[in-house]
Amino acid sequence: MANAADKTAVMTENLRDMGLDDETTAKCLMLIAEKRYAELEKLLQAYRRTLLDSVHKYNDRIDCLDFFTYTLRKNGGI
Asked: Does residue 2 lie within any of the structural domains?
């Protein structure tokens, strides 16, 4: 865990915990250092949409799995 006194290390760890790759993490840190917060927000919003798309995709798959197993049980297959 990063030393809380080292803000850059804390931010780096936080960005990596979000799942950002090294290149995107470095870009975020650069945008923060240059106080280009509007660009940083756009980048993070785009990444958030990507994560949400993944959540929705896997949720759809879970729904299909649940329906499939429900149908099998209903028809005596399980």
From this structure: no
35-60 pLDDT per residue, tens: 999 999 999 999 999 999 999 999 99
Cβ contact 12:2 at 8 Å: yes
Element (H, E) at 37: helix 37-74
- Residue 1 lies inside a defined structural domain of this protein: no
- Domain assignment present for residue 14? The answer is yes
Question: What is the distance between the alpha carbons of residues 62 and 18, in angstroms, rounded to a whole number?
Answer: 23
Are residues 20 and 8 in contact, defined by beta-carbon separation less than 8 angstroms? Answer: no
**For the chain, how big is the Rg over CA atoms in Å?**
20
Is there a contact between 25 and 16 (Cβ–Cβ < 8 Å)? yes
Domain count, the chain: 1
To the question of pTM greater than 0.85 for the whole model, the response is no
Instruction: Say how far residue 19 (Cα) sits from the centre of its chain.
Output: 6
